[in-house]
Design brief:
Layout: H1 8-57, E1 62-63, H2 75-78, E2 82-89, E3 95-101, E4 104-114, E5 120-129, E6 146-155, H3 178-184, E7 190-197, H4 220-243
Parallel strand pairs: 1-2, 5-7
Antiparallel strand pairs: 2-4, 2-6, 3-4, 4-5, 6-7
Helix pairs in contact: 1-4
Protein backbone atom coordinates (compact mmCIF):
# COMPACT_ATOMS: atom_id res chain seq x y z
CA UNK A 1 0.00 0.00 0.00
CA UNK A 2 1.60 3.29 -1.18
CA UNK A 3 1.82 6.35 0.98
CA UNK A 4 0.18 9.54 -0.44
CA UNK A 5 2.20 12.69 0.34
CA UNK A 6 0.45 14.80 2.93
CA UNK A 7 0.67 17.88 0.67
CA UNK A 8 -0.91 16.19 -2.38
CA UNK A 9 -4.47 17.53 -1.77
CA UNK A 10 -3.06 21.02 -1.34
CA UNK A 11 -1.02 20.64 -4.54
CA UNK A 12 -4.08 19.54 -6.52
CA UNK A 13 -6.16 22.39 -5.12
CA UNK A 14 -3.47 24.85 -6.15
CA UNK A 15 -3.29 23.39 -9.66
CA UNK A 16 -7.07 23.72 -10.08
CA UNK A 17 -6.96 27.33 -8.94
CA UNK A 18 -4.10 28.08 -11.32
CA UNK A 19 -5.95 26.44 -14.21
CA UNK A 20 -9.07 28.49 -13.51
CA UNK A 21 -6.96 31.64 -13.32
CA UNK A 22 -5.35 30.76 -16.66
CA UNK A 23 -8.78 30.25 -18.26
CA UNK A 24 -9.91 33.65 -16.99
CA UNK A 25 -6.76 35.25 -18.41
CA UNK A 26 -7.31 33.53 -21.76
CA UNK A 27 -10.89 34.83 -21.91
CA UNK A 28 -9.71 38.32 -20.98
CA UNK A 29 -7.04 38.24 -23.69
CA UNK A 30 -9.62 37.11 -26.27
CA UNK A 31 -11.92 39.95 -25.24
CA UNK A 32 -9.13 42.53 -25.49
CA UNK A 33 -8.11 41.23 -28.92
CA UNK A 34 -11.73 41.44 -30.06
CA UNK A 35 -11.95 45.04 -28.83
CA UNK A 36 -8.74 45.90 -30.65
CA UNK A 37 -10.01 44.33 -33.87
CA UNK A 38 -13.30 46.22 -33.54
CA UNK A 39 -11.35 49.48 -33.24
CA UNK A 40 -9.36 48.62 -36.37
CA UNK A 41 -12.65 48.11 -38.21
CA UNK A 42 -13.95 51.42 -36.80
CA UNK A 43 -10.75 53.10 -37.98
CA UNK A 44 -11.36 51.95 -41.54
CA UNK A 45 -15.00 53.09 -41.33
CA UNK A 46 -14.01 56.51 -39.93
CA UNK A 47 -11.36 57.09 -42.59
CA UNK A 48 -13.89 56.21 -45.29
CA UNK A 49 -16.42 58.61 -43.72
CA UNK A 50 -13.91 61.46 -43.59
CA UNK A 51 -12.90 60.85 -47.21
CA UNK A 52 -16.54 60.81 -48.36
CA UNK A 53 -17.39 64.02 -46.51
CA UNK A 54 -14.29 65.78 -47.82
CA UNK A 55 -15.29 64.83 -51.35
CA UNK A 56 -18.84 66.08 -50.83
CA UNK A 57 -18.03 69.48 -49.34
CA UNK A 58 -15.63 70.28 -52.19
CA UNK A 59 -17.84 68.97 -54.99
CA UNK A 60 -19.89 71.17 -57.30
CA UNK A 61 -23.37 71.82 -55.90
CA UNK A 62 -26.33 69.79 -57.13
CA UNK A 63 -30.07 70.52 -56.80
CA UNK A 64 -31.43 69.80 -53.34
CA UNK A 65 -33.62 66.67 -53.15
CA UNK A 66 -37.18 67.40 -54.28
CA UNK A 67 -40.28 66.16 -52.51
CA UNK A 68 -40.35 62.97 -54.57
CA UNK A 69 -36.92 62.05 -53.18
CA UNK A 70 -37.43 62.99 -49.53
CA UNK A 71 -38.10 59.41 -48.46
CA UNK A 72 -34.66 58.40 -49.74
CA UNK A 73 -32.74 61.07 -47.82
CA UNK A 74 -30.43 59.71 -45.13
CA UNK A 75 -27.27 60.74 -43.31
CA UNK A 76 -24.99 58.13 -44.89
CA UNK A 77 -25.80 59.10 -48.46
CA UNK A 78 -26.62 62.80 -48.13
CA UNK A 79 -25.19 64.63 -45.13
CA UNK A 80 -22.75 67.43 -46.08
CA UNK A 81 -23.61 67.24 -49.77
CA UNK A 82 -23.34 70.64 -51.46
CA UNK A 83 -26.75 71.58 -52.82
CA UNK A 84 -28.50 74.56 -54.36
CA UNK A 85 -32.14 75.52 -53.91
CA UNK A 86 -34.18 78.50 -55.09
CA UNK A 87 -37.20 80.09 -53.47
CA UNK A 88 -38.43 82.94 -51.30
CA UNK A 89 -37.48 83.36 -47.65
CA UNK A 90 -40.36 83.46 -45.16
CA UNK A 91 -38.55 85.94 -42.92
CA UNK A 92 -41.55 86.33 -40.62
CA UNK A 93 -41.20 82.64 -39.67
CA UNK A 94 -37.51 82.58 -38.76
CA UNK A 95 -36.39 80.62 -35.70
CA UNK A 96 -33.38 81.40 -33.54
CA UNK A 97 -31.35 78.44 -32.29
CA UNK A 98 -28.70 78.92 -29.60
CA UNK A 99 -25.20 78.59 -31.05
CA UNK A 100 -21.60 78.70 -29.91
CA UNK A 101 -19.29 79.45 -32.81
CA UNK A 102 -15.82 80.72 -33.69
CA UNK A 103 -17.44 84.18 -33.65
CA UNK A 104 -18.70 83.70 -30.09
CA UNK A 105 -22.10 82.88 -28.61
CA UNK A 106 -25.30 83.84 -30.35
CA UNK A 107 -27.90 82.24 -32.59
CA UNK A 108 -28.36 80.38 -35.84
CA UNK A 109 -31.05 82.02 -37.96
CA UNK A 110 -33.26 79.24 -39.34
CA UNK A 111 -35.60 80.52 -42.05
CA UNK A 112 -38.05 78.58 -44.23
CA UNK A 113 -37.37 78.87 -47.94
CA UNK A 114 -40.66 78.56 -49.78
CA UNK A 115 -40.27 76.73 -53.10
CA UNK A 116 -42.28 77.09 -56.30
CA UNK A 117 -43.98 73.71 -55.82
CA UNK A 118 -45.43 74.74 -52.46
CA UNK A 119 -42.91 72.85 -50.33
CA UNK A 120 -40.38 74.38 -47.98
CA UNK A 121 -36.80 73.79 -46.89
CA UNK A 122 -35.42 75.11 -43.62
CA UNK A 123 -32.24 77.08 -44.23
CA UNK A 124 -29.68 77.87 -41.57
CA UNK A 125 -28.77 81.26 -42.99
CA UNK A 126 -25.93 81.65 -40.51
CA UNK A 127 -24.92 83.22 -37.22
CA UNK A 128 -25.98 86.42 -35.49
CA UNK A 129 -24.59 87.66 -32.14
CA UNK A 130 -26.90 87.95 -29.17
CA UNK A 131 -27.28 91.71 -29.49
CA UNK A 132 -28.52 91.31 -33.07
CA UNK A 133 -31.08 88.61 -32.46
CA UNK A 134 -33.94 91.03 -33.17
CA UNK A 135 -34.69 90.96 -36.92
CA UNK A 136 -35.30 94.72 -36.74
CA UNK A 137 -31.59 95.21 -36.00
CA UNK A 138 -30.57 93.51 -39.26
CA UNK A 139 -33.27 94.43 -41.74
CA UNK A 140 -30.84 94.56 -44.66
CA UNK A 141 -30.29 90.81 -44.30
CA UNK A 142 -34.02 90.04 -44.47
CA UNK A 143 -34.00 89.39 -48.20
CA UNK A 144 -37.52 89.86 -49.64
CA UNK A 145 -37.36 88.48 -53.17
CA UNK A 146 -36.63 85.12 -54.82
CA UNK A 147 -33.09 83.97 -54.13
CA UNK A 148 -30.85 80.98 -54.72
CA UNK A 149 -29.04 79.46 -51.75
CA UNK A 150 -26.08 77.12 -51.86
CA UNK A 151 -24.97 75.19 -48.82
CA UNK A 152 -24.49 71.85 -47.13
CA UNK A 153 -27.28 69.37 -46.50
CA UNK A 154 -27.68 68.55 -42.82
CA UNK A 155 -29.86 66.04 -41.01
CA UNK A 156 -32.47 67.05 -38.46
CA UNK A 157 -31.38 67.30 -34.82
CA UNK A 158 -34.41 66.11 -32.83
CA UNK A 159 -35.32 67.12 -29.28
CA UNK A 160 -32.34 69.28 -28.36
CA UNK A 161 -28.64 69.39 -27.64
CA UNK A 162 -26.65 67.05 -25.43
CA UNK A 163 -27.06 69.39 -22.47
CA UNK A 164 -30.44 71.06 -23.02
CA UNK A 165 -33.75 70.06 -24.53
CA UNK A 166 -35.72 72.29 -26.85
CA UNK A 167 -38.55 74.15 -25.12
CA UNK A 168 -41.02 74.32 -27.97
CA UNK A 169 -43.75 76.07 -25.95
CA UNK A 170 -41.37 78.86 -24.92
CA UNK A 171 -39.80 78.98 -28.41
CA UNK A 172 -36.34 78.27 -27.02
CA UNK A 173 -34.24 76.11 -29.31
CA UNK A 174 -30.93 74.35 -28.72
CA UNK A 175 -30.92 72.16 -31.84
CA UNK A 176 -32.24 72.31 -35.37
CA UNK A 177 -35.18 69.97 -35.05
CA UNK A 178 -36.80 70.23 -38.48
CA UNK A 179 -40.16 68.64 -37.64
CA UNK A 180 -40.63 70.55 -34.39
CA UNK A 181 -39.66 73.91 -35.89
CA UNK A 182 -41.93 73.34 -38.90
CA UNK A 183 -44.86 72.50 -36.64
CA UNK A 184 -44.20 75.51 -34.40
CA UNK A 185 -44.16 77.82 -37.41
CA UNK A 186 -47.28 76.27 -38.97
CA UNK A 187 -45.47 74.87 -41.98
CA UNK A 188 -46.48 71.82 -43.99
CA UNK A 189 -44.67 69.86 -46.69
CA UNK A 190 -41.24 70.62 -45.24
CA UNK A 191 -38.11 68.75 -46.35
CA UNK A 192 -36.76 66.31 -43.72
CA UNK A 193 -33.34 67.98 -43.86
CA UNK A 194 -32.06 71.53 -43.51
CA UNK A 195 -29.35 73.42 -45.36
CA UNK A 196 -26.39 75.24 -43.83
CA UNK A 197 -25.92 78.27 -46.10
CA UNK A 198 -22.42 78.87 -47.41
CA UNK A 199 -20.26 81.93 -46.76
CA UNK A 200 -21.90 84.11 -49.44
CA UNK A 201 -22.20 87.55 -47.84
CA UNK A 202 -25.63 88.82 -46.84
CA UNK A 203 -26.51 92.53 -47.08
CA UNK A 204 -25.49 94.27 -43.88
CA UNK A 205 -23.12 91.42 -43.02
CA UNK A 206 -25.68 89.31 -41.12
CA UNK A 207 -26.37 86.44 -40.79
CA UNK A 208 -22.84 85.05 -41.26
CA UNK A 209 -22.95 81.79 -43.17
CA UNK A 210 -20.31 79.21 -43.91
CA UNK A 211 -19.59 78.36 -40.27
CA UNK A 212 -20.40 74.66 -40.46
CA UNK A 213 -17.90 72.74 -38.32
CA UNK A 214 -16.91 69.47 -39.95
CA UNK A 215 -14.88 67.47 -37.48
CA UNK A 216 -14.88 63.74 -36.84
CA UNK A 217 -12.74 62.63 -33.86
CA UNK A 218 -10.55 59.74 -34.97
CA UNK A 219 -8.86 58.07 -32.01
CA UNK A 220 -9.53 54.51 -33.12
CA UNK A 221 -5.87 53.71 -33.84
CA UNK A 222 -4.88 54.75 -30.32
CA UNK A 223 -7.69 52.65 -28.87
CA UNK A 224 -6.70 49.64 -31.00
CA UNK A 225 -3.06 49.88 -29.87
CA UNK A 226 -4.22 50.16 -26.25
CA UNK A 227 -6.44 47.07 -26.43
CA UNK A 228 -3.82 45.01 -28.27
CA UNK A 229 -1.15 46.14 -25.81
CA UNK A 230 -3.24 45.04 -22.84
CA UNK A 231 -3.93 41.74 -24.59
CA UNK A 232 -0.18 41.20 -25.07
CA UNK A 233 0.40 41.80 -21.36
CA UNK A 234 -2.28 39.32 -20.40
CA UNK A 235 -0.89 36.71 -22.80
CA UNK A 236 2.60 37.23 -21.38
CA UNK A 237 1.24 36.61 -17.90
CA UNK A 238 -0.47 33.48 -19.19
CA UNK A 239 2.84 32.19 -20.59
CA UNK A 240 4.55 32.70 -17.25
CA UNK A 241 1.82 30.76 -15.53
CA UNK A 242 2.18 27.79 -17.88
CA UNK A 243 5.92 27.84 -17.39
CA UNK A 244 5.42 27.80 -13.63
CA UNK A 245 7.38 31.00 -13.17
CA UNK A 246 4.90 32.67 -10.91
CA UNK A 247 2.31 31.59 -8.43
CA UNK A 248 3.74 28.14 -7.84
CA UNK A 249 5.04 28.93 -4.38
CA UNK A 250 7.92 26.51 -5.01
CA UNK A 251 5.59 23.51 -5.13
CA UNK A 252 6.66 22.33 -8.61
Amino acid sequence: MSNVPTDEPERRHFQVKRALFAVCLALLAATLIALGTWQVERLAWKRDLIARVEERVHASPVPAPARSDWAKVNAVADEYRRVTVAGTLANDKETLVYASTALGPGYWVITPLMLADGTAVLVNRGFVPTDRRDPASRREGQLPGPIEITGLMRMTEPKGSLLQSNDVAADRWYSRDVAAIAQKRGLSAVAPYFIDADAAANPGGLPVGGLTVIHFPNNHLVYAITWYGLAAMVLALLVFIFRGKIGTGGRE
